[in-house]
Amino acid sequence: MAKNKKKYQVVVNQEACKGCNLCVAFCKPEVLRTSENLNKMGYNYAEPVAGKDCNGCMICTLVCPDLVLEVYYE
Hints:
The chain has a single domain (11-73), classed as Alpha-Beta Plaits, CATH 3.30.70.20. β2 (32-38) and β3 (44-48) form a beta hairpin. It is elongated. It contains 2 helices and 4 strands, in the order βαββαβ. Helices cover 14% and strands 30% of the residues. The strands form 2 sheets. Strands 1-4 form a two-stranded antiparallel ribbon. The protein has helices at 22-26, 59-63; strands spanning 8-12, 32-38, 44-48, 69-73. The longest helix is centred in the first third of the chain and has 5 residues, at 22-26. The chain is an alpha+beta fold.
């Protein structure tokens, strides 16, 4: 019997992100990247990479100094 793979989704509050890239550096499955776009404060915010699967480790939420990341179980 095959196990169902759990699906997780990372949500970034892009307007509050200051672009420190700690979440990007610590994300082992490389689900996050730095956007080429700027938010209203002028920072390149973090964003999820389309097609990459989050493993739900939530390390990104632990290293973010501004608490702009959330991980949801789909």
